[in-house]
Amino acid sequence: MLRNPIIGQYVEALTDPFRIFRTLGEVVPERDAYGEPLFWSGNYSVIFKVRCADGKYYALKCYTRLPRHAAAVYASLGGGTVPYLVPARFLPDEIYLCEHSGGGAYYPVTLMEWVEGESLGGRLARLCRNGDRTGLKELARAFDRMALWLLESDFAHGDLKQDNLMVDRQGRLRLIDYDGAYIGELAGRKAEVIGSPAYQYPSRDADFFGKAIDDYPIALISLSLHALALDPSLFGRYHDGENIIFDAAEVNRGKSALFDRLMREWARCGASALVVLGAGCSIRRRK
Q1: How far is residue 130's CA from residue 113's CA, in Å, rounded to a whole number?
Q2: How far is residue 246 CA from its own chain's centroid?
Q3: How far is Cα 260 from Cα 262, in angstroms, rounded to an integer?
Q4: pLDDT score of 280
Q5: What values do phi and psi take at 247, rounded to 5?
Q6: What domains are defined for the chain?
Q7: DSSP string spanning 226-283?
Q8: What is the pLDDT of residues 201-213, one digit of tens each?
Q9: Which is deepest, 99, 117, 149, 179, by most CB within 10 Å?
């Protein structure tokens, strides 16, 4: 196997995807106005929207660096229906990449059903732009229901953020991207994906890997959503493209003026649930 494929190799392969897949057969990528495959890149992978032989659309994830836990995570989740999760399969040695110097090798991919809808960030932008407090309140409650399932589950996502939460056409929240997930059989292992700094507890590192890894981002996201339901204008003023309205590091260091102001306002008006939730987000790092 070649070492560390680059995005360009995958784009080149998907440009003319004839007989490059070991088991998937005919795969047709979505293309842009110039006829090139559409793709979205991340820290460890590139994702293509493709149509497979069954006529359905999927997210085809191709890795530039494969997390060691990926095969175990996707095998554990299986392809069945689990609340809030999207059916996905890990396919080892599936896509063939050529080397310009000659030869080539097969590489693993993940195939996940394509979720038609909006990212959480996209839905928030639209609801806040329209000042839709009712829609924002419903979204906050939907997130809290999903959060309760996560907290009671043996599964932890590991990288909760606006881009990894989708709102489908039925209005349901769906989690995507499980490369950083924790499952019971990984107990005692180290994390390979730490998650976005804007959402994670600042002292989280590779050794902090277990059922509790979602607790802090759950609290921060829930607090953000309920704050927007009370004042949608906060999104336009404090959303920086990565966060929702709060930055985890600033909150934890006591450097978020917005967080401090909202906590004072909620305390004055008796919003005790938000105050308690916020207190969990502002726990300082231990020396």
Answers
A1: 30
A2: 17
A3: 6
A4: 83
A5: -110, 125
A6: 7-113 (3.30.200), 117-281 (1.10.510)
A7: HHHHH-THHHHHH--SSSSS--HHHHHHT--HHHHHHHHHHHHTT-HHHHHHHHHH-P
A8: 888 999 999 999 9
A9: 179
